[in-house]
Amino acid sequence: MEYRPLMEFRGVEVRYQAEPALIDVSFRIEEPAFTVIVGPNGAGKTTLLKTALGLVKPTRGRVVVLGVDVVRHPWRVRRMVGYVPQRERIDQTMPALVRDVVLMGRALRRPLIGRLSDEDREAALRALERVGLSDLWDAPFAHLSGGQQQRVLIARALAAEPRLLLLDEPLSGVDAASQEVIVSLLADLARSGVGVVMVTHDLNPVLDCADYVLLLNKRLIAFGRPAELVEPDLLSKTYGKDVKVFRMGTQCFVISGDAHA
Ligand SMILES: Nc1ncnc2c1ncn2[C@@H]1O[C@H](COP(=O)(O)OP(=O)(O)O)[C@@H](O)[C@H]1O
Ligand SMILES: [Mg+2]
Question: Quick check: pTM over 0.90?
């Protein structure tokens, strides 16, 4: 089979008006893995995901996702990629049932509005099972906890059976127990062959599960295995301030001046 890395950025620059949001970013994620992009607010994390989806155009460089040039063929990429955007963009008063939200993931991949088939329903139910919430098929979405809502939104993306899943801050506004459920769910997905790229400003919940970590602050600070990157100097460079790393046995914990690192 033709060799196709999951995601490749080569010398990518993105500018909004004159301000650069990404500067000379290059990396390559070879195979389906659980990759976590970490950086402070304004580091360009959301911009990086949007660039990978062709929603933002690089002013320099090349972006290839699943072997496809995103600038030339954004729709070919978007058909293969699931996207879970940052949550403030979702209306929490949405009067929908969980199943409607998940089925939307099937409807969105159609070029024209058509009737949903049994196959669509089965795929949606499978996706909800995958996030461990099939019991909530008929529940009102607005009644769910923040963590459950986030899992339903992940199921919505999975319902389209993507080869790559991009998630923007899926752990923010989610309690610690749900964070753990979400992180291990994403690690399982990656093991089953779906590429997962997740953005977070908080490294701690993902340290044990991530296959790769990419440290970003407009520039790429480092890309590698989490154990190699949990170094005070690299993390301080990423966050632009002092970061301390505490180790307890195999556990390790990152603390910065504020509660966000
Ligand atoms: N649509 C936009 N227009 C102008 N500037 C933007 C836009 N989106 C993001 N930016 C700026 O680009 C920088 C990176 O933003 P973003 O990618 O959202 O970072 P992060 O997700 O890491 O917080 C920030 O300085 C932000 O203000
Ligand atoms: Mg962001």
Answer: yes
